[in-house]
């Protein structure tokens, strides 16, 4: 008996998302992020039905949309989620991503949480925050800075 209901080596929560052209998305994640393809299963039509990848110590899964199973693709604009990739060089990853066809959502910058981060939308339609934690910031300092930032957004 294990302490976790998940398979050995798996976290209890793993993300699965659909990607526009999942095969191209897999190549993008390998080339740009250095992700590892762990497993890939193609459907009878040749499209990716399910793939498992690993980025550092984190697994994630993806596949093509399957409307008959109520699994839809990413929206044309925006996203209802963001994946955060913690990397030692967000500037370089951001530049590689944009060069490989990603859209810059927000340029890499130092932010009030003590992180250096930028946001892209990859060619498959997925929103990624590329981040590095540079300094610890107190919860009160983050709350004050966040309140100030939100007030500036309303102005």
Q: Would you mind describing this structure in some detail?
A:
Helices cover 25% and strands 33% of the residues. Strand 7 (115-121) and strand 8 form a beta hairpin. The protein has 3 helices and 8 strands. The longest helix has 16 residues, at 139-154. It has helices at 22-33, 90-99, 139-154; strands at residues 15-18, 36-42, 48-55, 58-63, 83-86, 103-110, 115-121, 127-133. The N and C termini lie far apart (57 Å). The protein has 155 residues and is of the alpha/beta class. Strands 1-4-3-2 form a 4-stranded mixed β-sheet, with helices on one face. A 4-stranded mixed β-sheet has the order 5-8-7-6, with helices on one face. The chain has a single domain (16-154), classed as 2,3-Dihydroxybiphenyl 1,2-Dioxygenase, domain 1, CATH 3.10.180.10. This is PhnB protein. It comes from Actinophytocola oryzae. Residues 10-133 form the VOC domain. InterPro entries: Glyas_Bleomycin-R_OHBP_Dase, Glyas_Fos-R_dOase_dom, VOC_core.
What does the secondary structure layout of this molecule look like, with pairings?
Elements: E1 15-18, H1 22-33, E2 36-42, E3 48-55, E4 58-63, E5 83-86, H2 90-99, E6 103-110, E7 115-121, E8 127-133, H3 139-154
Parallel strand pairs: 1-4, 5-8
Antiparallel strand pairs: 2-3, 3-4, 6-7, 7-8
């Amino acid at each position: 008996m294990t302490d976790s209901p998940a398979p050995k080596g798996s976290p209890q929560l793993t993300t699965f998302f659909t990607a526009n052209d999942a095969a191209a998305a897999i190549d993008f994640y390998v080339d740009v992020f250095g992700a590892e393809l762990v497993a890939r299963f193609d459907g009878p039509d040749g499209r990716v039905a399910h793939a498992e990848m690993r980025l550092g110590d984190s697994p994630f899964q993806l596949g093509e949309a399957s409307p008959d199973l109520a699994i839809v693709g990413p929206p044309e604009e925006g996203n209802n989620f963001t994946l955060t990739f913690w990397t030692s060089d967000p500037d370089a990853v951001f530049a590689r991503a944009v060069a490989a066809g990603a859209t810059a959502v927000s340029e890499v910058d130092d932010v009030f949480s003590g992180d250096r981060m930028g946001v892209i939308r990859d060619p498959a339609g997925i929103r990624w925050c590329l981040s590095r934690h540079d300094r610890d910031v107190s919860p009160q300092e983050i709350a004050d800075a966040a309140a100030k930032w939100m007030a500036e957004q309303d102005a």
